[in-house]
Write a structure and sequence with these properties.
Chain lengths: 353, 566
């Protein structure tokens, strides 16, 4: 995937793999778009609560929950945050034991939605905004899910510990012995962002790059939200990976952080959301899903959480580098869906944990 | 006997059978599934393949070897630290020895995984407060560190900090009980203080020290939290973290079961060894009445000794709590707090915004209360039956009640997971499965505590009740129970505390609706939310301390009661 792309084109293409694999073409047309009606709000309020499984950073997830609770008084959102891969395992285990806790699920590994759809674990529901505004690449044609968030997985460094001129420009630069013992990295067995990024990087740079990186005494953490945190507090100079939104927010706050979009390309991470077929609070789930895809909620994701959005009516943060100026790696959720175990096994072989 | 047939039907035999059956199910069901699964393929075919993998695949063999090396190192260090500390406290005129003793006990309140998190804050190579201080003093460059907690040595250290108190307590108690006459004899025969210590005191204390080493070994072997927090960033697994990782997607319960069996076998073997060692200790103290042990005068070494003891205590206690407080109330966890960086944000976030906090606290509280009550009653019943030899077969009960000691938390977690994710009893996802886990884990300690309490209530009192025609249960209720009340309440508190701290079984068994405090802290750890971790850890420790203080208050009257009854 090369060079300069407009935001619209990126958004249109970034999800293509998601689409290409995401569904077995259904005979029926996609379900009709649903608006947020007073009846829906009333029904949701009767249920009173919603359990939201997500892998977005905890503090941001709770902010989103708070915004929803403020918009719809009487609703209570329980944020169940863990790594996307961990949530995937938990939901699988819970469903195998006929435990239905989850109402709405958001995963930073788009492959999960594909798999859940194959297993008929999702309920079709198309919010009005998704039907009207979202690019086709960011919604499932059968209405099972749509992209709630988009982010990248760049490199970031602590500007107190690394001078701008010394900073790595590419993934290849990270193999320089001078970075040995100075890097921190998250785990594809825990984080969907990292799983997605690992698939893209192993495809484009080859596993040999990971093998060499593993010899650099990299500190191994779990969540994609943690490398930026370990980097900003000075524990390690460079975060090899992690969700782009955290360093964006840190930089805004004035923390000594700079983001590097590697010359080889930056992994693109789409994080779709869907409603579980066995959601215990189905109306609340619909209300939450519909609200979370509105321009208003999506703008909140951008402003408060530093995320990017598929909603064309949102405005990017002025401090965020435009998609059109970043070389992006192609996302292939369908490949991740089929190869996740292989990717994990290969990774553990090099990094030992 | 027939002439004195009780007026009411004596239910003690059915009770015995019911209790024995219950215990058998509690233990046999999960362990049975564990063993069956470890010899099965994914499709349920019999195989030895899992064990072949376990002992040949480096990704299993390395954790196994790391675990053994870790456990040996920790027990050696614990003995090396605990023995002199115990001796100083019990056998010398070191000032503040009571305070030191209390503080060592207090350090046990800290769950080891909380200690590991705190030590990350202190000794992470770059952001760790101690390393920053060291660089500030020595002017060492940015990338040099005095300590690196993310290493094998770092893990040994962090575990030893919270394991040596067990050895210390054993050693100090043994030295307390050691007859002073033997030492007096030695010095009367002309031996100097140090020769006496070397030739009399040390050999007498040696069996206890060996037992302590075994305790430390077992504690380390089965520890999950600290390795999960420190070993994984360092790039290695121990057996417990490996077992846990096998529950990640795609789950491999058959390999997890196979990896759990060595832990089980080793634990059983070591407990057996420990009881042999402790059983032999009797030879040391033959003879009539003993005088109180004679305190050795340290002379000019008195204050250096106190300094040493306080330094040792700073490792599990003063430094980690300073770090936790710093993180809880500071805007930047990696910097020392100043009036400008003081914040209540973490407290407000944890209790006001984090939507998992209150459900987790509630679950923890419900489970701790239920476990303490159910487990305590069960232990009481068993202790009574065994102490009074009420029914033929009481020994079986004693064995069953102590058997869970040999089952590491994570192994029990795996076993219960296998047993209760399938019909007829699909308990996974409910608080029941956690209740079963916690009752099983806490039963041995509760039983032992209540068992010894029963021995102090003289059977004559009960016999009097029985002779007057009361049934066994009536006697228990009207005579024994009031006498045992304080011991029972103390046991209740200790079980309560044990549940609050438990992580290794809960981490396998929880679901989003049944998350407990320890699991929540562990979850937050994985995403690096240190502020909330510090607040929740301190909350946990405060809760625990309050309950222990209450237990000790009541425990004070336990002795009183037993004197009255004796």
């Amino acid at each position: 995937m090369t060079g300069k792309l407009t935001r619209r084109r990126v958004l249109a293409t970034s999800g293509t793999a998601l689409m290409a694999s995401g569904f077995v073409r259904s005979a029926q047309a996609a379900p009709e778009a649903s608006r947020i009606t007073p009846e829906l709000i009333e029904a949701a309020k009767k249920e009173g609560k919603i359990v939201w499984y997500t892998s977005v950073d905890l503090a941001l997830g709770e902010k989103v929950a708070k915004a929803f609770e403020t918009k719809y008084p009487g609703m209570d959102v329980k944020v169940e945050r863990s790594g996307a891969e961990r949530n995937f395992q938990r939901i699988g285990q819970e469903y195998a034991s006929k435990i239905y806790n989850c109402d709405v699920v958001n995963s930073s590994d788009a492959a999960h939605l594909i798999i859940w759809k194959r297993q008929k674990m999702l309920a079709a529901y198309v919010p009005e905004d998704v039907a009207r505004d979202f690019p086709a690449a960011h919604k499932d044609p059968d209405g099972m899910f749509s992209s709630w968030r988009i982010t990248l997985c760049p490199i970031a460094y602590n500007t107190k510990l690394v001078k701008a001129e010394d900073a790595p420009k590419s993934y290849a630069d990270l193999l320089d012995p001078k970075w040995s013992g100075k890097m921190v990295k998250a785990h594809p067995g825990y984080s969907g962002t990292i799983m997605t990024a690992t698939q893209q990087l192993s495809r484009d740079l080859g596993w040999a790059w990971f093998e060499k990186l593993a010899r650099q005494k990299v500190m191994q953490v779990q969540s994609a939200t943690e490398p930026p945190k370990k980097m900003v507090n000075g524990e390690r100079a460079i975060a090899v990976d992690g969700g782009e939104y955290l360093p964006i927010l840190m930089r805004e706050k004035g923390d000594p952080v700079e983001i590097v979009y590697p010359t080889e390309g930056t992994p693109l991470i789409t994080g779709p959301s869907g409603i579980m077929a066995n959601a215990p609070n189905p109306n609340a789930a619909r209300l939450f899903q519909a609200w979370s895809m509105t321009a208003e909620a999506q703008q909140l994701n951008i402003d408060v959480a530093g995320l990017r959005s598929a909603h064309p009516k949102t405005k990017d943060k002025p401090t965020t580098k435009k998609f059109s100026d970043i070389k992006l790696l192609r996302e292939e959720a369908n490949v991740v869906a089929d190869k996740a175990d292989e990717i994990k096994a290969q990774y553990v072989k090099f990094f030992k944990v | 006997m027939t002439a004195k047939a009780p007026r009411l039907f004596d239910v003690s035999r059915p009770v015995l059978i019911a209790v024995a059956a219950l215990l058998a199910i509690l233990i046999a069901l999960p362990m049975g599934w564990l063993i069956v699964t470890s010899f099965s393929t994914k499709d349920g075919q019999a195989t030895l393949g899992n064990f072949v993998t376990l002992f040949t695949d480096p990704s299993f063999l390395d954790p196994l070897l790391a675990t053994l090396l870790l456990s040996v190192s920790v027990s050696v260090i614990c003995c090396a630290v605990a023995a002199p500390m115990g001796w100083l406290v019990a056998r010398t005129d070191m000032p503040l020895s009571r305070t030191v003793r209390t503080l060592v006990m207090a350090s046990l309140v800290t769950p080891p995984f909380v200690g590991a998190v705190a030590w990350e804050m202190l000794a992470a190579p770059n952001s760790g407060l101690l390393n920053q201080l060291w660089r500030l003093i020595t002017g060492a460059p940015d990338d040099e560190a005095l300590f690196d907690i993310y290493t094998f040595e770092g893990l040994i250290f962090a575990i030893a900090c919270y394991t040596f108190p067990y050895v210390f307590i054993l050693v100090a108690n043994a030295l307390d009980r050691m007859p002073g006459e033997l030492e007096d004899a030695s010095s009367m025969l002309g031996a100097r203080t140090w020769a006496t210590a070397r030739r009399i005191t040390v050999p007498l204390a040696l069996p206890t020290l060996l037992a302590g080493a075994l305790v430390a070994f077992l504690q380390t072997l089965n520890q999950f939290g600290s390795p999960a927090i420190l070993a994984i960033p360092a790039g290695f697994h121990t057996l417990t973290t490996k077992i846990w990782s096998l529950f990640q997607f795609p789950p491999k319960p058959e390999l997890a079961s196979a990896a759990a069996l060595p832990l089980l076998v080793l634990t059983v073997a070591l407990l057996r060894a420990q009881s042999l060692v402790l059983g032999r200790r009797g030879y040391a103290v033959l003879g009539g009445k003993y005088g109180a042990p004679r305190l050795i005068r340290l002379g000019p070494w008195r204050w250096p000794a106190v300094g040493l003891a306080l330094f040792v205590l700073s490792l599990p206690l003063f430094l980690p709590y300073a770090a936790l407080l710093n993180t809880a109330f500071s805007k930047v966890s990696s910097q020392l707090i100043t009036p400008q960086t003081f914040t209540l944000h973490n407290v407000v976030f944890t209790f006001g915004e984090l939507s998992s906090t209150l459900p987790a606290l509630q679950n923890t509280f419900v489970l701790a209360t239920a476990t303490a009550t159910v487990g305590g009653l069960l232990a009481l019943l068993i202790a009574y039956i065994v102490a009074r030899r009420a029914v033929v077969g009481h020994r079986v009960l004693a064995f069953l009640a102590t058997a869970p000691l040999a089952i590491p938390g994570i192994v029990l977690g795996v076993g219960l997971f296998l047993a209760y994710t399938r019909p007829p009893l699909t308990l996974y996802g409910t608080l029941w499965i956690l209740l079963i886990a916690f009752v099983t884990i806490e039963l041995p300690a509760a039983y032992q505590q209540l068992g010894s309490a029963f021995h102090s209530v003289h059977p004559e009192l009960e016999e009097a009740g029985r002779m007057l025609g009361a049934t066994r249960l009536r006697t228990l209720k009207d005579i024994t129970a009031p006498l045992l009340r304080s011991a029972a309440i103390a046991t209740w508190c200790f079980v309560f505390v044990g549940v609050i701290r438990e992580l290794s079984a809960a981490v396998i068994l929880f679901t989003s609706e049944t998350k407990v405090l320890s699991v929540l802290i562990f979850d937050l750890k994985e995403s690096g939310d240190v502020g909330a971790i510090a607040v929740l850890s301190l909350t946990m420790v405060i809760l625990t301390t309050v309950v222990i203080v209450i237990a000790n208050r009541i425990g004070g009257s336990v002795r009183l009661t037993s004197r009255v009854a004796g």
